[in-house]
Amino acid sequence: MRHTDFTHARMRHAGFTLIELLITVAIAAILSMIAVPSYRDYVVRGNIPDATSNLSTKQVRMEQSFQDNRTYVGGAGCTADTTSSKYFDFTCTDGGDAVAATTYTLTAVGKSSMAGFKFTINQAGAKTTRAVPTGWSQPSPNNCWATKKAGTC
Fold first, then answer.
1. Which residues of 65-74 are buried (b: 16+ CB within 10 A; e: fewer)?
2. Three-state SS for 50?
3. Separation in Å, CA 128 to CA 99, 141, 146
4. Which of 4, 48, 134, 136 is the most buried (most CB within 10 A)?
5. Residue ranges of the domains in the chain?
6. Nearest C-alpha neighbor of 118 from the set 148, 88, 75
7. pTM greater than 0.90 (yes/no)
8. Please, which pLDDT band fits residue 38 given cuts at 50, 70 and 90?
């Protein structure tokens, strides 16, 4: 065999065949079909503590305000907040009058990639999941903040 024949024979086997390439693409597609949805769920679950921790912080502020003023009306944690979180907007409703000055409800409403979520907590510490996006289950009984797709807390 001449040197040039050996080089040509060697070069023919140096690349990938079409079948090998198609098999590789098929495997990559199957893996991405499994991995991408799982990753999205993981990211969503990772953003939920943004709501729950902020609600808990605001609850503490409301309780401190009540200890100081004996009313929740105008409490430090009871302000609309659309800037402290990238994924949730926070609102508060307090009793608003002297008769109902002993109640409040703090609410976190999802925005952007967390749209569809709505969590609340009140003066009694009752946590509820008011809404979840499509594909998520509502907790039953609804006495907690849903942190997993199956509606578990």
1. bbeeeebbbe
2. helix
3. 25, 9, 8
4. 48
5. 3-131
6. 88
7. no
8. confident
